[in-house]
Amino acid sequence: MSLMKWLNRRLCFLKIFTKRSLHAKESKNNEAGKFKASIQKLPRNFQEVLERYRNPETGQIAVTPIVNALRENGLFSLDDPRLRPFFKKLSLDEMELSNDDYAAKEQFSKSRFMEVDTFIQSIERGYGLVTRALRGELTIPNWQKFTEAIGRIFTYGKKFDQGQVATYIPQLARIDPKKWAVSICTIDGQTESWGDFRDPFCMQSVSKPFTYAIAIEQLGADYVHSFVGQEPSGRLFNEICLNNVFKPHNPMINAGAIVVASLLYQKEVLSTRFEYSLREFDRFAGGGRISFNNAVFLSERETADRNYALAYYMREHKCYPEKTNIREALDLYFQLCSVSTTTNSLAVMAATLANGGICPLTKDRVVCTIAVRDTLSLMLSCGMYDYSGQHAFKVGLPAKSGVSGAMIIVIPNLMGIALYSPPLDMLGNPVRGVKFAEKLVEEFKFHQYDSLVSSDCEKIDPRI
């Protein structure tokens, strides 16, 4: 081959190569232009997330680092409706999503990609949440460190095996006393759980703050408190007594809760009253696991001599609205106590109170801020039966316990905590729950007056 022919062929090759390169570059630029156009209407911060995790070669979104960041920030659950479509798109709907699931961890050790449009559509309800998680701007930024500390407190609480399971309701007497569960949920919806958190239990008296908040939302504080007081009773939770103006002392004890139940949806039949109440509980839980334990309801109703005595004693002193059906009021009260849930869902309910009445998972305003303020005030002063004063002094946080072993703690503007341990102390509070709460404020700046203590205090503030 002559030199001239070789040069001509070489020149042709270079022209073709250059043309293809220019075409590829032009195509790449066109793709980039289309990408920018497709995300133009999205929030600016979320656009930056897409640009950061977009593969320039394929145009797809690298979802592996996003999923890992969500997990590290406590946002790895199918219970969260904001992220459920995203996880389902990743074919994880059949997997149990938790930090203890090694299968999930192994699956996400490999690179996963998703088309831009698919990613945007699946994450539509969580633009802001995902952006804040990736930027470390959630309520508790160092989630891993915080949950490790809570895990240690959970283990600490497990060693306390004192107390007795409630026996005056036969169904509760059969509960396994070894059960121990803790769940937490922040006002951003960061969640984590330990122990028997999947096991359902009846709320019992833990339902009372939510019933009271619903009544305030519906009827107003003035009307509700024309029938029930606001003071600690200083008596046992089921004692037959009223205050000096012949009202139940507060809505957190049996007498007050029976009266509050009589106020709910007064014009409706009993079945509808319970249906509507259960619907509101479901809103508090963000669509979580809320159900009804009929066996406990029947068991409680059959052995409720003290509550019947209380109810008729209050009728004698005209504690109810006119024409109140006492039997229906009691049945609704028993039904509300027999609502069944798990610590996972109960923590979301508590977090809704911590978030001023807005569910962290759905952003649904369940009750107004006044209802939340009044509910938390009464939980702090009256929520732990005749231990309420000591709890307010030592722990300084609104809480409510129940004879099933359930307990909630609300840290306003931060999180809700749900605990479950059936053995109770002499005052009717779960032994492990009380110990957990006391240890919690020993380690963290959660007592409502910790801000007044010197900055040299060794307690941890997980918010910073």
Compile the SSE list and pairings.
Elements: H1 3-38, H2 44-53, E1 61-62, H3 64-72, H4 84-89, H5 102-107, E2 113-114, H6 116-122, H7 127-134, H8 143-158, H9 170-173, E3 181-186, E4 191-195, E5 201-202, H10 208-219, H11 221-224, H12 254-263, H13 270-284, E6 291-292, H14 294-302, H15 305-316, H16 326-337, E7 339-341, H17 343-354, H18 369-382, H19 388-394, E8 399-401, E9 406-411, E10 415-420, H20 431-443
Antiparallel strand pairs: 1-2, 3-4, 3-10, 5-7, 6-7, 8-9, 9-10
Helix pairs in contact: 8-20, 10-12, 10-18, 12-15, 12-16, 13-16, 14-16, 18-19
InterPro entries: Beta-lactam/transpept-like, Glutaminase, Glutaminase_EF-hand
Family: Belongs to the glutaminase family.
Protein name: glutaminase
